[in-house]
């Protein structure tokens, strides 16, 4: 086992552990309240630092913008090929309508409920939201079985996210016909290679997405996106700027086309020192 160096950080209210090794850097930063086994996140970080990433088949990746509430700035969505809107709260239909009006008909629009709805609510909401030309809806309900029930009753394509944390979960999604795509986050799945195995088991288009990580974590998601044979959907990897800070002077942020370049990230020593967590 190669020697790995650990850097424990606190960025705003987020605890982040970076792992440095012979192959580069990895990140372990489970998001409080989000289903992610810390042991899986640690495996993902150690894989990145110790053995690196699989060979890539693309050098850049299209990403989506993210809207989380009514206070969005329409100009911030310009240039993105896709916009994702968080839904599941009062007023979400009006929010989706406002975003569609802001971006026009030529931009893909998807919604993400993070499993907030029950089956009947999901069916009712998605039938209403369908008028805004949704590309897909991510995790409208919590379980694989409920996702399958919803999919049979709506025309909006569905993506499985939080309900898929293993190859067995992916196989069950496939067997139940529960989704049209699968959202893959590297840390909860235990690494890029494990995520590729999940994608293969699901037999569905994959959408690599981050977990509000630093640029080191985003680079792990980009490595997954770069290694997939096909990548028909924009990825949810434009999130580094949403943190209170970053660990590099050259953050992984999209260009004016809504595209991220696939490249390694090396943290800046001064920033590591700034965010180093002090232990009382």
Commentary on this structure:
By secondary structure, the chain is α/β, with parallel strands linked by helices. It has a single domain (53-264), classed as Enolase-like C-terminal domain (TIM Barrel, Alpha-Beta Barrel), CATH 3.20.20. The chain has nine helices and twelve strands. The chain has helices spanning 38-50, 92-103, 119-129, 144-151, 167-176, 186-189, 192-202, 215-227, 269-275; strands at 5-11, 14-21, 24-28, 60-62, 65-67, 82-86, 108-112, 134-138, 158-160, 181-184, 206-208, 259-261. The strands form three sheets. The protein has a seven-stranded parallel beta sheet. Strands 1-2-3 form a three-stranded antiparallel beta sheet. A two-stranded antiparallel ribbon has the order 4-12. α4 links the parallel β8 and β9 (158-160). α7 (192-202) packs across α8 (215-227). The longest helix is centred in the first third of the chain and has 13 residues, at 38-50. The two termini are 31 Å apart.
């Amino acid at each position: 086992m190669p020697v790995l160096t650990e850097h424990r950080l606190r960025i705003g209210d987020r605890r982040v552990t970076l792992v440095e090794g012979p192959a580069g850097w990895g990140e372990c930063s489970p998001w409080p309240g989000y289903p992610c086994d810390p042991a899986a996140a640690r495996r993902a970080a150690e894989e990145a630092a110790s053995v690196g990433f699989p060979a890539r088949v693309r050098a850049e990746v299209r990403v989506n913008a993210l809207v989380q509430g009514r206070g969005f700035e329409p100009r911030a969505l310009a240039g993105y090929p896709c916009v994702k809107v968080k839904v599941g709260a009062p007023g979400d239909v009006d929010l989706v309508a406002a975003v569609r009006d802001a971006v026009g008909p030529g931009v893909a629009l998807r919604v993400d409920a993070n499993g907030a709805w029950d089956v009947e609510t999901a069916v009712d909401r998605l039938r209403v939201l369908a008028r805004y030309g949704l590309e897909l809806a991510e995790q409208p309900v919590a379980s694989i079985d409920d996702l399958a029930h919803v999919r049979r009753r709506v025309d909006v394509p569905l993506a499985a996210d939080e309900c898929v944390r293993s190859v067995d979960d992916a196989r069950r999604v496939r067997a139940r016909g529960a989704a049209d795509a699968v959202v893959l986050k590297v840390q909860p799945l235990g690494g890029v290679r494990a995520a590729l195995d999940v994608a293969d088991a699901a037999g569905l288009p994959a959408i690599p997405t981050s977990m509000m990580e630093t640029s080191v974590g985003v680079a792990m998601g980009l490595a997954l996106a770069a290694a997939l044979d096909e990548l028909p959907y924009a990825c949810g990897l434009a999130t580094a700027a949403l943190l209170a800070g970053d660990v590099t002077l050259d953050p992984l942020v999209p260009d004016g086309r809504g595209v991220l370049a696939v490249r390694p990230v090396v943290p800046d020593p001064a920033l590591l020192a700034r965010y180093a967590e002090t232990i009382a």
